[in-house]
Design brief:
The protein is 31% helix and 21% strand. The chain has 62 residues and is of the alpha+beta class. This is SPOR domain-containing protein. It comes from Arthrobacter echini.
């Protein structure tokens, strides 16, 4: 089964890991998810910024 990686240097999706780990985001199960990697990163960063408990010692609960 293939995995897909987003390369932040080339801004291209790689099928299976081809580049150095330092420039990859992933793995993702589909090419489409890898293509949207930067959008997902931005969404997560915004969620963390909005988390008033970020950086506190409170336990993580789901």
């Amino acid at each position: 089964m293939s995995e897909y990686w987003y390369n932040v240097r080339t801004r291209e999706v790689e099928e299976d890991r081809q580049s150095d780990w330092k420039q990859l985001i992933g793995p993702y199960p589909t090419r489409a998810e890898a293509e949207n990697a930067l959008q997902k990163v931005q969404e997560r960063n915004e969620a963390w910024d909005d988390d008033g408990g970020w950086g506190t010692s409170r336990p993580v609960t789901d």
